[in-house]
Predict the structure.
Amino acid sequence: MSSSAAPVTDASFPTEVLESSVPVLVDFWAPWCGPCRMVAPVVDEIAEQYEGQIKVVKLNTDENPQVASQYGIRSIPTLMIFKDGQRVDMVVGAVPKTTLANTLEKYL
Amino acid sequence: MTTPKSTPTGQSQGKNLESMRKFAEKYASRTDTYFCSNLAVTAAVIKGLAQHKEELGSPLCPCRHYEDKAAEVKKAYWNCPCVPMREEKKCHCMLFLTPDNAFAGDTQEITTEQINELCQQM
């Protein structure tokens, strides 16, 4: 699968997301979550469109329950934006690309 | 002689998939809801429900993160069909979509072959 969003884990989350110098979009997904499959290509497009400006990663909540629980993930997919180590925004469910782009623009 | 298909797990997995597939078709028809126009979404969710039924004994919603899956099964709130679906026809997993939903397709049917094929492509 050629995805622009690199996987992060419970272990790599602090370095990859919290210590990132650019804003990070995190796609919290699960293997058998249908709408996650609709969101994944949108997230990939966003990664290409904002290349260099933001970092885009994905986290499998089944395999990385610690981070998922820490940020109170309930409904999946959930897309979270982190800036300077803080969660600054969040979008829940399968959303159109424009919705996601508009949310992101606020933090560039 | 061993045939891979005759393992108990393989058999019960198939049985659970079939029962979830039939449930999804019947429930869609009964509630006047439709599968997603992208049937890969439907296939993934049915597979996820079958997997939870296999592991936990109940078809817990595969589109949520739980601190403790076994405890959630006992609470029953997110066992499919979940409370929001039964009370308000709201399925954030996009398995059952009301006709006014932009993602709703025009079918309430999916075959086992379709599910297996679509899940293999994932």
